[in-house]
Automatic annotation (TrEMBL):
Domain OmpR/PhoB-type: 124-222
Cellular component GO terms held in the UniProt record: cytosol; protein-DNA complex
Organism: Pseudoalteromonas phenolica
Keywords: DNA-binding, Phosphoprotein, Transcription, Transcription regulation, Two-component regulatory system
Positions of the Response regulatory domain: 2-116
Superkingdom of the organism of origin: Bacteria
Keyword Transport: no
Any one GO molecular-function label of the UniProt entry: phosphorelay response regulator activity
KW Lipoprotein (keyword) present: no
Record PTM 4-aspartylphosphate, positions in chain: 51
One Gene Ontology biological process: regulation of DNA-templated transcription
Gene3D superfamilies linked to this entry: 3.40.50.2300, 6.10.250.690, Winged helix-like DNA-binding domain superfamily/Winged helix DNA-binding domain (1.10.10.10)
DNA-binding region(s) in UniProt: 124-222
Protein name: DNA-binding response regulator
Phylogenetic placement of the source organism: Bacteria, Pseudomonadati, Pseudomonadota, Gammaproteobacteria, Alteromonadales
Length: 224
């Protein structure tokens, strides 16, 4: 999953990047409102964390313009403003949640997880499809109640496919959502991850949980 952090405090932005990357998110950073709005409109993202006191374009106006432009991803406001009026203004502008500074990183991560699950129609951090089960908070994976060991990127691929079951996911979309923006999008490494994932989920070749649709992409089956 890919998160955009729009924060003008560079040290805080890097701390947020570190905390979210520990949770296996791919992170893009912007340090002013104008570049943040451009990024929201032009790049595939799963969530945005937006400070209100941004240079060039403040966070409230950024959110309003993003929503008007058709940006639908969840937006979490992160700000030092504590007045309830600011919270109401941010939510009315189109934000989905609001967290005031200072904050605990664990709470930020939990809110990000919840917003992404909610946007995908998954209220529970545990997703079960057929014999495959994942827990998006602990990032554990089971097949027929047997826990599997996946690499970080194998897990990212599986989570994105299972959060979007039956949706055909192109290789480029999958790449864009699990890697940072500077990754080589023409790489064939996704094919390697999918192949390894299939072998771990289905070593006997009986389940076929991840389908390949030639010329279109991949799809996680939700019927068994």
């Amino acid at each position: 999953m890919r998160i955009l952090v729009i924060e003008d405090d560079i040290r805080l932005a890097e701390n947020l990047r570190f905390a979210l990357e520990k949770e296996k998110y791919s992170i893009d950073l912007c340090h002013d409102g104008e570049s943040g709005l451009f990024h929201l409109q032009e790049y595939p993202l799963d969530l945005a964390v937006v400070d209100l006191g941004l240079p060039k374009l403040d966070g409230i106006e950024l959110i309003k313009r993003a929503r008007k432009a058709g940006v639908t991803i969840p937006i979490l406001i992160l700000t030092a403003r504590e007045r309830w009026q600011d919270k109401v203004e941010g939510l009315d502008a189109g934000a989905d949640d609001y967290l005031t500074k200072p904050f605990h990183q664990e709470e930020l991560v939990a809110r990000c997880n919840a917003l992404i699950r909610r946007s995908a129609g998954q209220a529970n951090p545990e997703i079960n499809i057929g014999p495959v089960k994942i827990h998006t908070r602990s990032q554990q994976v089971w097949v027929n109640d047997k826990e599997l060991s996946l690499t970080a990127y194998e897990y990212k691929v599986l989570e994105y496919l299972m959060v979007n079951p039956q949706k055909v996911i192109s290789k480029s979309e999958l790449t864009e959502h699990i890697y940072d923006q500077d990754f080589d999008l023409d790489s064939n490494v996704i094919e390697v991850f999918v192949l390894r994932l299939r072998k771990k989920l289905d070593p006997e070749g009986n389940l076929n949980p991840v389908e390949t649709l030639r010329g279109r992409g991949y799809r996680f089956r939700n019927q068994w």
